Amino acid sequence: FSQVEPTLLVATDRYFYKGKEISLFDKIRSVQESLPSVSTTLILPYSDPLPAPTEWIALNAALREPDISPFEKFPFNHPLYYLFTSGTTGKPKGIIHGAGGTLLEHKKELMLHTDVTTEDTVFYQTTCAWMMWNWLVSSLACGAKIVLYDGFPLQQEGRLLLDIAEREGVSVFGTNPGYLRELESGQIQPQQGRKLDRLKSILSTGAPLLPTQFDWVYKAFPPEVCLSSISGGTDIIGCFALGSPILPVRRGELQCRSLAYQVEAYNEAGKPVIGEKGELVCTKPFMSMPVGFVNDQDGKRYGAAYFSTFGDIWHHGDAITITETGGVIVHERSDDVLNAGGVRIGPAEIYRQVLTFPEIKEAVAVSATVGGDDKILLAVVLNDSTETKLSPSLEREIKNRLRTEESPRHVPWKIFVAPDLPRTLSGKISASAIRSVLQGKKAPNEHALKNPEVLAFYQEISSSLKAPLP
User: Fold this and answer.
1) For residue 422, which phi and psi values (nearest 5 degrees)?
2) CB–CB of 159/183 below 8 Å?
3) Of the candidates 452, 435, 210, which has an alpha carbon nearest to the alpha carbon of residue 334?
4) Tens digits of per-residue pLDDT, 105-118?
5) Which alpha helices (DSSP H) does 320-391 contain, by range?
6) In a 10 Å sphere around its CB, with 0-12 CB exposed, 13-18 middle and 19+ buried, how is residue 452 labelled?
7) What secondary structure does DSSP assign to 416-448, as a single string?
8) Rg of the chain over CA atoms, in angstroms?
9) What are the φ and ψ backbone dihedral angles of 161, each rounded to 5 degrees?
10) What pLDDT, on a 0 to 100 scale, did the predictor assign at position 296?
11) Residues 6 or more apart whose Cβ sits within 8 Å of residue 71
């Protein structure tokens, strides 16, 4: 947030997670001290106000109502949202989205691709930090009602969200593959004891929905629902491929490309291909392109982020296949963003905690599919090169730090001590090489590594991952 130098900080006094009440006063104080531009803090009580610390006035946190000015007219591309990327290579990029393009894109996706009307009630399982929250709020522009849920999504083994859907008459239920997988593995029957007769659409994003999950949804939920796997990103505050109420649902596929978006799959020669894996590109301008990046007046970072691969054609970083019938299969990200049960996490969020431990010299986090689930694996290089394992106490401290300072999603499934990390000739650590080897593939850039012999270690780790899960 320091990138945008905010003057007003809005916070709540606490939140609840897994039945625990967690005070936010210390967190608010820390944010205030890190943001000298903030002149006013507005604290809204979650329910009944908590007693504030006695020194709170000294921290400039007295409650007051902000000044309310009359509505003003602004240009079409006037900034509406600053969204932040995951921070894969350092500070998260601040992406500026304009009001006009965002509104048009969201109304198109909601009204045409999802068939949202004034009769609908829309829910999406999301935090305020994910663009799906912004997308959900735009349902109000369609005249629909929205349902917000704040808390642990697997409360009561996931039944709570289903109970909310029944009680509130949710007609569009948005979630992610991880939640659906938890319901399936827990043998939860959504229709058992519930009437979900208003449910017409189930949306899933955050990761590709597996073909077998399509099968399960149509066994577990009312068979007339439209199951739409959707895919886009923070960069476009919308979707490149998503659902349609008038097209068939095919297992393992996104139903269609986004209307008015010239989305193609490019091969290595920069040519569009059908039925083959390629890079997701958009060959013509589209409504919800960012209007810019924060602190990027000359547009160089913007250009480098999307237009450095195929010239003046938007290159998004997803590997996709466009099928003969017009559907889209999303394979994986081309970058190093981690996937933890359908939630995308920037590795930098993990590194900023792990690398504070004096025992840790370097670290690389990657996500890999283990037993059908996306898991985060963390390779660390220790300062003491004679050690080949983490002490139990150090491993506990690392996991506790990540859980408390970041989130439970940031805690790696496995931490292993590596002799070294693969590096390019310029000395840059190659996370993509580790990820490929852990998935049983050949590192695509092995010829460009100055220490390719270290990959043998990761091949051994890969073999151990194929053993049955404990």
Assistant:
1) -65, 135
2) no
3) 435
4) 999 999 999 999 99
5) 347-354
6) middle
7) EE-S---BBTTS-B-HHHHHHHHTT---TTGGG
8) 23
9) -65, -35
10) 92
11) none
**What residue type is assigned to position 320 of the chain?**
I
What gap in Å lies between CA 228 and CA 319, rounded to an integer? 19
Predicted local confidence at residue 166, as pLDDT: 97
Question: What's 462's DSSP letter?
Answer: H
Contact assessment for residue 96 and residue 295, using Cβ atoms and an 8 Å cutoff: no
Write out the two tokens for 78: 């006037």
Exposed / middle / buried, residue 77 (Cβ in 10 Å: 0-12, 13-18, 19+): middle
How many Å apart are CA 28 and CA 53, to the nearest integer? 12
DSSP string, 263-286: EEEE-TTS-B-SSSEEEEEE-S--
CA angle 44/49/55 to nearest 5° reads 85
- Tokens found for residue 172: 């569009």
Four-point Cα dihedral 379, 176, 436, 378, nearest 10: 0
Are the CB atoms for 364 and 378 separated by under 8 Å? Answer: yes
Question: Do residues 138 and 108 make contact, with C-beta atoms less than 8 angstroms apart?
Answer: no
Phi, psi of 32 (to 5 degrees): -60, -45
Least Cα distance to 439 among 461, 456, 424 occurs for: 461
pTM of the model: 0.73
Judge residue 35's burial from the number of C-beta atoms within 10 Å of its C-beta, 0-12 exposed, 13-18 middle, 19 or more buried.
Answer: middle
Give the whole-angstrom CA distance, residue 14 versus residue 43: 10
State how far the Cα of 256 lies from the Cα of 248, in Å rounded to an integer: 10
pLDDT by residue (tens digit) across 236-257? 999 999 999 999 999 999 999 9
